[in-house]
Design brief:
mainly alpha; 6 helices
Amino acid sequence: MRNASAFSLALGILTLGSISANSADIAAGNAKAADCSDCHGPAGISENPVIPHLAGQHADYLMHQMRNFKSGVRDNPFCVPMVDHLSDEDINNVAA
């Protein structure tokens, strides 16, 4: 019973993350992410081996990383200025 409760809680948390990504405006996200393509490639596939691919990443992971850059938890001189002006809604849209 205890494992079932933990599983239900984990599933609920994952579902909440999916809801925010599923309700995103992908066209608006693409417009906001245009500057990201300079480093990460127009399709999210970087040609530089030290710059990670964004294509194929889960939206929840991307939202988490963008929020880490924005809050200062994660530092990168290129990414921080790219996300600094984004609202939470923008971050959800870009991640989608």
